[in-house]
Amino acid sequence: MAKETVSFFWFRRDLRLEDNIGLFHALESNYPIIPLFVFDDSILDSLPRNDARVGFIHESLSTINEQLKQIGSSLLVKKGETTAVWKSLIQEFDVKEVFFNKDYEQYAIKRDDVICELLQSENIIPFSFKDQVIFEEKEITKADGLPYTIYTPFKNKWLDKYNAMAPVREYTGSDTSSNFHKSNYIFPSLEEIGFEESNIKVLPYNLKQISEYQEIRDFPAIDGTSYLSPHLRFGTVSVRKMVNWAAKTNAVFLSELIWREFFMQILFNFPREVTHNFKPAYDGIQWRNNEADFKRWCSGTTGYPMVDAGMRQLNETGYMHNRVRMVVASFLCKHLLINWQWGEAYFAEKLLDYEMASNVGNWQWAAGTGCDAAPYFRVFNPEIQLKKFDEKGIYIRKWIPEFDLGYGQPMVEHAMARDRAIATYKAGILK
């Protein structure tokens, strides 16, 4: 029996039909397009069975599948080791082309290299596209072609390049294309993938208050957060749409989207920063790495209300306010002298918007060991931060209901911890 002749579009971090560059180009193919998602065992095996992010991916895929059913198609969902899945698909179909959008994390780059080599060995043409950023890899560089390691000049060059082409093209019409493969694949339940519903949910993004972003962004008691970051992380909304909108609405909010791209190009150009200090001179710091202290930080029982409220919010919801993230990260690295990698790993486990580039970049910023980082002698005082940004205690009372019943003493005294941190950094910085 002859195999069906088809091409594939492979969804990964781009879970939408609308304004999806790789999908747009796939649908211009001479062959019907099978939309595919692979639940990768190499990633899933390390996650808890109730991981909220897997639930969100499944929910987003279900939405895509329902949209495809409206035009006589459906989403093919597979689970397994990615190479094995592709070998099976090549056996089942006469595959001519595979389209996908790039991912810049190290695991994904290696995976895609392996899959492309496999496809080419079978005379299948792979096509990859830039989709999750406006500018990628080496598109924003210094005059000598080297990557920026300082944010402000990167931002200025980014804005110059964006403004010369603004607004960036948005790719529409994929949700009505007649070139999708006609199919009715069975969409698996979350349980069939090996997972279960989580009580933690990704919230819809909300841009209503972004025009006031710079006035409200530092106050965690104000629900002025956009909740956009998980949607950018998993691609349920296009970065082009968000950047074009932010460029017309709020320059400070746009700068946050540029920070995201700054850290992505740092990760791409300096991949060792995932496991090493960006500044090797900081490799001599003697971290205390006390496990009991770390557990108190994780559980939100340090005795510092803003730190504890932030960690409890994270543990209960998968979110943490950005100002509070800076405070809790500084506290772990400076007050407790625990290696930033411990905190980065804990955030990777808990954050709904976990994105390796931003997470590693921001943790090294807080620790003072990264590119364009806060200086090592800058040690946030959690009590002053509380007075400045939650003066009435609204945020901390939301997450620490026992606060007014005689809250515990701080686990470490600020002045002592600050002096200890500065001395430890001074002694550890390699000359």
Structural notes for this entry:
The termini are far apart. The protein has helices spanning 21-26, 41-44, 52-69, 82-92, 106-121, 151-163, 190-193, 213-216, 229-234, 239-249, 251-269, 291-299, 305-317, 322-335, 340-350, 356-367, 382-389, 394-399, 414-428; strands at 5-11, 33-40, 76-80, 94-101, 125-129. Helix 4 packs parallel to helix 5 (106-121), helix 11 packs across helix 16 (356-367) and helix 13 packs across helix 14 (322-335). The radius of gyration is 23 Å and the shape is globular. The longest helix is centred in the middle third of the chain and has 19 residues, at 251-269. By secondary structure, it is α/β, with parallel strands linked by helices. Pfam families: DNA_photolyase (PF00875), FAD_binding_7 (PF03441). Its cofactor is (6R)-5,10-methylene-5,6,7,8-tetrahydrofolate; FAD.
Brief summary of the model shown:
With 431 residues, the protein is an alpha/beta fold. The chain folds into three domains: 5-131, HUPs (Rossmann fold, 3-Layer(aba) Sandwich); 133-169 and 207-269, Serine Threonine Protein Phosphatase 5, Tetratricopeptide repeat (Alpha Horseshoe), CATH 1.25.40; 280-428, DNA Cyclobutane Dipyrimidine Photolyase, subunit A, domain 3.
Q: Using the alpha-carbon principal axes, give the shape.
A: globular
Which series of helices and strands comes N to C? Answer: EHEHHEHEHEHHHHHHHHHHHHHH
The order of strands across the largest sheet is 3-2-1-4-5
Percent helix, as a range, is 40-55%
Binned strand content: 5-15%
**Average pLDDT figure:** 95
What's the CATH H-level superfamily name of the largest domain?
DNA Cyclobutane Dipyrimidine Photolyase, subunit A, domain 3
Major sheet characteristics:
5 strands, parallel
Q: How widely separated are the two ends?
A: 70 Å
The helix-and-strand class reads alpha/beta
